[in-house]
Every structure is written in C-alpha cells, then in structure tokens.
Amino acid sequence: MKNAIIITLTCLATVSASARETSHVPDLARIADAIAWKVSNATAELVNVDGKSAIRLVAKGDSANGLVGLALPTGIEFDTGVIEIELKGKNLRQRSFLGVAFNVVDDRTFEGVYFRPFNFRAEPPVDGRSVQYIAWPEHTWEHLRKERPGQFEKPVRPVPDPDGWFHARIKVTSTNVQVFVDDAKAPSLVVERLSRGNAKRPLGLFVDSADGVYANLRITPDKK
Q1: Contacts of 14 (CB under 8 A, 6+ apart)
Q2: Long-range contacts made by residues 182-189, C-beta under 8 angstroms, separation at least 24?
Q3: Which of 44, 57, 210, 222 is most exposed, with the fewest beta carbons within 10 Å of its own?
Q4: In a domain, 106, yes or no
Q5: How many domains does the chain have?
C-alpha cells in the first residue's frame, strides 16, 4: 500500500510538472523591449502597484474611432486553452476598459474579453455591462448590444472591488469562451465565438480609451 501511494504521488507530481511546462508566463518587465513585446496604439510602462510588479497600458485611441491598445508578447501563439491575468481598473465612469485579446490577426482584427470595473457595483441593468466579449472588426460592443442585447455582456459574480485587483481566467475552446473571476466556480460570461479560430495566433493585453494595470499573465494552451 505504501509503495502504491508513493507511485500515485509521483504520477501526480509528474502530471503537474507536465502541465506547468505547457504554460507560458511572459516577462512583463520587458514591456519596453520591442523584441519581447509588440505594443500597438498604446504606451506601456513597468510599475509597482500594491507591492505587485505590473505594467500600465495607456490607450492612444478609442474603440469609437476604430483603435484600441494591444500589447502582445512575441513568440507566443494561442488557439484554445486558458488565459489568466490579474487586472486593476478604476471606479471612474467610462474611464476603465481593460482585458485580453486573442486570435489576433492585426490591431483591428481579433477577439477579446474585457471588463468595465465602473459597472461592477452599478444597479441593474447597468451591472450587466461589466464583462464583454467582442470579435473585431464586425462584432464590436455597439453592434452586439444592438443586435443581440444581453448575450455578450454580463454582470461579474462575485462582485470585485472596482478599484482593486481581480483575477480573470478566460477559457477558450473552438466554439465558446468562458470567463471566471476570482474564485468563482461558475463563469460570469459564457458566449459562442463569433470569429473563426482553429489557428494559432498572437494574444495579449487589451486597453480601450483610458488606462489599465496588468500583472501575472499566464497562457496555457491546450495540448494537441
């Protein structure tokens, strides 16, 4: 029995190590290195916030004008799997839009999930605009809200501090996207994908019309 327990623990450790080996953790400290990161329509700086090493992105444009900020780690491509990130926005109306982009073809063609922290504690129905899925260029938030209201944006549960750090885990399959926040067992958002995947493409950080702070980006592609 003792030998069986040892063998089981060894197998579990091997599986765990194998899983860790498939994850990518981009070095945020190299955000200013054009070889390590590609930053589009934004400025980026390394910051320390609440004792956490992070980066701040400041958008140069606005989605209303067809521009959002992206920061993509070079050499990492993604099809399906899990994206994890810690985010810190602010409780200032219309001044905090931050998240991730994936399936990035260029800075105007990508899928994304982003948060509006200033809506986290809003009254219904505005709290239902806290987390958003988009698929540019066709499926902007404006288009989705008009044509398919309430399907691609939802409240976040449990409700995070709109001025504090929160953890997002975005699970991407070939057909859908699920968004989990902090320790939630159930996703805040589940949507069908509106852009063709099935190809490994760049991914990274998203910011729109203001600024956001990001830490501990981890990418775990599915094993093929």
Answers
A1: none
A2: 182/158, 184/157, 184/158, 186/157, 188/130, 188/131, 188/154, 188/155, 188/156, 188/157, 189/113, 189/131, 189/133, 189/152, 189/153, 189/154
A3: 222
A4: yes
A5: 1
In single-letter form, the type of residue at position 130 comes to: S
110: in domain = yes
Kindly tell me if the per-residue pLDDT of 3 is higher than 70: no
Can you read off the two tokens belonging to residue 133?
Answer: 């899925």
Classify each residue of 145-173 as buried b or exposed e, where b means 16 or more C-beta atoms within 10 Å of its C-beta.
eeeeeeebbbbbbebbebeebbbbbbbbe
Residue in 224, 157, 150 with CA at minimum distance from that of residue 191: 150
**Cα Rg, the chain, nearest whole Å:** 18
Domain span at residue 86?
A: 24-221
Residue, of 197 and 55, whose pLDDT is higher: 55
Q: pLDDT exceeding 90 applies to what percent of the chain?
A: 86
**What is the Cα 148 distance to its own chain's centre?**
22
CA angle 173, 178, 180 (to 5 degrees): 135
Q: How many CB atoms lie within 10 A of CB 84?
A: 18
Look at residue 6 and tell me whether its pLDDT is greater than 80.
no
Q: Percentage helix, strand, coil, to 5, in the chain?
A: 20, 40, 40
Residue 145 is part of a domain; what is its CATH number?
Answer: 2.60.120.560
Q: Is residue 13 part of a domain?
A: no
pLDDT tens per residue, range 58-91: 999 899 999 999 999 999 999 999 999 999 999 9
